[in-house]
Amino acid sequence: MTPPPAGLEARLAAFAAGEGFDALGIARPDAIAAAAPRLKAWVATGAHGDMGWMAETLERRADPRTLWPEIRSVIMLGLNYGPAEDPRKVLEQRTAGAISVYARAEDYHDIIKPRLKRVARALLAEAGSRGLSGDVKVFVDTAPLMEKPLAAAAGLGWQGKHTNLVSRDFGSWLFLGAIATTLELQPTAAEGDHCGSCQSCLDACPTGAFPSPYVIDARRCVSYLTIEHKGPIPADLRPLMGNRIYGCDDCLAACPWNKFAQDGREAKLAARAENDAPPLADLAGLDDAAFRARFPKSPIKRVGRARFVRNVLIAMGNSGNAGFLPRVEARLADDEPLVRGAAVWALGKLAEAEAVHRLKQQHLSREDDADVRAEWTVLAPPR
Question: Which of 73, 77, 269, 374 is such that its CA lies 20 to 30 A from the CA of 145?
Answer without folding.
Answer: 269
